[in-house]
Design a protein that fits this description.
about 10% strand, 16 helices, alpha/beta
């Protein structure tokens, strides 16, 4: 006798090889997220700078998703940027999410942020960045001793004015160990609350991530410092997402990412896909039902389209017109088991993220596809109707719209 949906042991239906040999999650503070959409994301060559009301709406969605902090921009980027930063910082005063700004590791860059904190009375984290790799030092004509001096001076200035500081080494994943040690030590001793490892050029592989995070973690431990470690990655080699997950497993406590992966050159780690994967891994328990809206708004506001086949949030992600696949999903639905239907042909349960499985009709469809679409519109799936729709589908080199299915069946949308 077949078990009822609520009697099925779900663990019997999916053997999860992801759990075989996986390392336990690192012990320590809750994993945090820093959203770079409105700063690094806007350095994407193809974006348009969103309107202020769109930025505010995005910040509210970030807050709803449980994202901890948002980079609201570069104060040195001009008057429009400064005005937007001011309004966004003011908005965060009523939310759980906190604001930060990116500055060069110079007192002159940090002073406007200090002035803004004093004017608004709202905390702002200063993210002071400096290039750390030898190739950058050579191109700029920088001396490591001078870089260490500037680091101490800039971080000390922020701390003296009660502004929390994160020290960011650009291009950390191509920097010499001795330079990384010297710069982070200077920043920590000057009072930085966080330090950020940057894969600025998307150079790192997962092995490289484990190497640099391990090195920095050991340094922090040696200094007996109570500072958080951030990871900021790009996807020039297509490794942004996996590198962020590896960084979390290696002990990083805050991850940086952007909506739909927008950012300079090939972009940044995708915040939406990062949250999806960490949720499925059981490493976060955030309510992610607003993620689809977050992606849609980011796309609309920046003018960057979401590819049809983009994971989870692309229009094709949960659609199928293939007969055998659709038949399995339909059988699950007909068992009255939404949990089963959401997983039978999907590695990501659509319902967890406010989405749903969709059955369509196309040249690779079978009778069950047609019957399902007709029945969803309240139309009886007679043999004649199914035959007529399939005849059209086999002659059409794409999926049919539901209106086309109904028209071929001689019916109207209910």
């Amino acid at each position: 006798m077949e078990k009822k949906p609520d009697e099925i042991d779900r663990a019997e239906l999916i053997f999860d090889w992801n759990q075989v040999g996986s390392a336990p999650p690192p012990e320590g503070p809750r994993l945090q997220f820093d959203d770079e959409t409105l700063r690094d994301g806007l350095q994407c060559p193809s974006v348009r700078d969103p309107k202020l009301d769109q930025k505010i709406e995005l910040v509210h969605l970030m807050d709803k998703l449980g994202i901890d902090s948002v980079d609201v921009g570069l104060p040195g980027a001009g008057e429009r940027a400064r005005q937007h930063i001011k309004m966004l910082v003011r908005e965060t005063a009523n939310l759980n999410i906190t604001a930060n700004v990116a500055c060069r590791t110079l007192v002159s860059d940090i002073k406007p942020a200090v002035d803004l904190v004093q004017e608004l009375g709202t905390p702002i984290e200063v993210c002071a960045f400096i290039g750390s790799s030898p190739i950058r030092q050579y191109a700029e004509g920088w001396d490591i001793d001078e870089m260490v001096r500037l680091t101490k001076e800039a971080i000390s200035f922020a701390v003296e004015h009660d502004v929390p500081a994160m020290f960011v080494t650009e291009d950390t994943t191509r920097a010499r160990p001795e330079d990384v040690r010297a710069l982070y030590t200077a920043a920590i001793e000057a009072g930085a609350r966080r330090i950020c490892i940057c894969d600025t050029c998307g150079h790192a592989t997962p092995d490289g991530v484990r190497g640099i995070v391990g090195f920095v973690s050991e340094l922090v431990s040696t200094l007996n410092a109570d500072v958080g470690i951030d990871w900021h990655g790009h996807r020039d080699r297509g490794l942004g997402l996996i590198n962020a997950i590896v960084a979390a497993a290696a002990g990083v406590t805050r991850l940086h990412a952007t909506a739909i992966g927008i950012g300079e050159r090939a972009g940044n780690t995708e915040m939406d896909l990062l949250l999806v994967n960490l949720k499925l891994l059981g490493l976060v328990d955030n309510d992610l039902s607003a993620l689809a809206e977050y992606c849609r708004l980011a796309s609309e506001a920046t003018g960057v389209p979401i590819p049809h086949n983009y994971s989870v949030f692309g229009s094709d992600a949960f659609e199928t017109g293939t007969g055998v696949h659709a038949a399995a999903v339909i059988k699950a639905f007909k068992k009255g088991n939404a949990w089963l239907a959401d997983r039978i042909y999907s590695g990501v349960p659509a319902g967890m993220f406010g989405l749903e499985q969709v059955i369509r009709v196309g040249p690779m469809s079978g009778r069950s596809n047609v019957a399902w679409v007709l029945e969803m519109h309240g139309v009886e799936a007679t043999e004649e109707r199914v035959r007529d729709v399939l005849a059209l589908a086999k002659e059409t080199p794409r999926l049919l719209t539901d209106d086309e299915v109904l028209a071929a069946a001689g019916a109207r949308r209910s």
